Amino acid sequence: MTHEKPQKTDKTKAKGESSAPVAGRLQVIPDTQSRVLIRWLWHDYLQAHLGYVVIALVLMSLEGAMLGALSYLIKPMFDKVLVAGHSDALMWVALAVFGVFSLRAIASFGQRVIMSRVGQKVSAKLQGDLVAHMLTLDGRFFQDNPPGTLIERTRGDSSAAATVWATVLSVAARDMVSLVSLLVVAISVDWRWTLIAVAGAPLLALPIHVLQNIVRRTSRRARAASARVSTRLDEIFHGATTIKLSGTERREADRFEGEINEFVDEQIKSVAGQAGIPALMDLVAGLGFFGVLLYGGQQIIEGTKTVGEFMSFFTAMALVFEPLRRLGNVSGAWQAARASLERLYAIFAERPAITSPAKPAPLPVPAASADIRFENVEFAYADAPVLRGTSFTAEAGKTTALVGASGAGKSTLFHLMTRLADPVKGQITIGGLATTRLALAELRGLYSVVSQDALLFDESLRDNVLMGAEVDEAQLHAALKAAHVEDFISTLDHGLDTPVGPRGSGLSGGQRQRVAIARAVLRNRPILLLDEATSALDAQSEKIVQNALESLSKGRTTLVIAHRLSTIRNADKIVVMDKGRVVDEGTHDELLARGGLYADLYRLQYSDGRTVIDGSLSKSGPHRPQGETGEEAKETGLLAATSRMFGNMLGLFGRTKD
Ligand SMILES: Nc1ncnc2c1ncn2[C@@H]1O[C@H](COP(=O)(O)OP(=O)(O)OP(=O)(O)O)[C@@H](O)[C@H]1O
Ligand SMILES: [Mg+2]
């Protein structure tokens, strides 16, 4: 309902943009018409506050009209009171002036409070919608748009978009009414004077048009630079440990300075452009006054006009320039905000490629007895092929292990099964039904996943295990016990209620992994996916947790990825992968007897039962996450929450950040 406008109007354009070869980055739809943007903003966000907006408009008009009233009162003030010396007129003129100011004060106060209230609500809804919408988008979107950029969209662009309409409306109501009422007063004094005063105005059309274009261009660049600044900050603060250990503090600080300076340069240009418009108007105003003074002054000297008339006119014209200046400003402000609106609109126009089918089919067999088959699956991230025709079956209720060198495409198989990405060719079936025919929520609901980089949220340990599940204490404790989380709870200050820090940085790598396992145990779904689930544990804990996982996998279709081959020895089937293809499959003993890649890997790892080398530890496993999540800068508040969320989205898709 809310985002139907972007969807309909610009769908094709946005699609074309997003699949552009330029690293797939989200491209701004250039020059989305102002009309379209205004209609969207009005329809989806402002209309709901129609009542308040109308009241604000009335108050604004009142505020505007008071300027006209004031300039009108100047005439009797001079002619009746000051020049003619009628003391009986003194009181009513003074009271009227006071009344005008009082009304203006009340109207202005009420209008501002209402407008900021509506503005904040609109901004909040816009941000809420934006985040909800972005969470429906594919992993690719989060890969192409780093967290910093998305934070900038959510915070910066939304507030720019939500405040501009207040400026536009107040100009439309208050300043237009001021302008008209002041012009009426001026014309009522002398239409010829008025004509002379505004004769220069048409000269402004061309330079204002040029300035507007400059403002729009520079604002766009400023917003893009601002997004880069946020990205840099996000990476610096998340990578503080890595930066320190590699001694690149100066380099990072310099890079940041470079980005912020670029932003500032564009921002200055944009503001200069915006300021140029009222400045031009002042020049033309000066010319107008010059003409009126020469012509009108002569008339007063000759006695055909009174001083009061002249002062009234002069006041009206002097007051005209303030609303006129704001009117000039509004186009600049709109052009600046338009850059933000276009970006937001472009995001709302993005559609996920991975969606539920229009008519989802039910799983034909109970999930517990559904085989999972990969049928000639091909897959590529961008253009680099990762899977080149992978076929194998993971039998229902059995444990299937996936082994192969780092980068062979094992984790990718999990991403495809859970539809974080879709194959380019071939299909994956569950119980004979293609995964694409199941409702997305139902499909993902089939799995308990322990992924390679266990991502924890900056909440309590309890919330991290529960992940919104509603279970009783007994079930929770059973899961904690099975995953050996209980072993370290007592060492934490507040036990289960201890906050785990941003991305779980308050826990060790092995502790984080056990929390992830506890989540999976508690989730209790028919299919279990374990990607290097115990790689960060010491040998002893690993053995214990391994046993727990083995008992968990009883009766469940389980797929295990492991580099340490000892942990998958007992699997019902081992699938050996090499460069995106299945090169062998069988049980441990069969594979060893056959003497292929698996036997080589095994011999490399175990010589006389002793570990010689562990291929996993140098590249993946426990060391990588620590670089990202070690002692991170403590973040708090909204920005941190947004950053965390986008960071975690990224993690879900398996993108590694460094
Ligand atoms: N998000 C991504 N974008 C681009 N390429 C990616 C992405 N994720 C993985 N790849 C590439 O896909 C290939 C397979 O990655 P995958 O994570 O499936 O390997 P893996 O077998 O799980 O390796 P490991 O044992 O190290 O976890 C790698 O060559 C990697 O460079
Ligand atoms: Mg992997």
TrEMBL record:
Supply the CDD domains for this chain.
ABC_6TM_MsbA_like
Q: Where is the composition biased (Basic and acidic residues)?
A: 1-16
Localization in the cell: Cell membrane
The answer, when asked if Membrane is one of the entry's keywords, is yes
| Residues covered by region (Disordered) | 1-21, 614-633
Give the highest taxon in the source lineage: Bacteria
Write down what this protein is called. Answer: ATP-binding cassette, subfamily B, MsbA
Source organism (scientific name):
Celeribacter halophilus
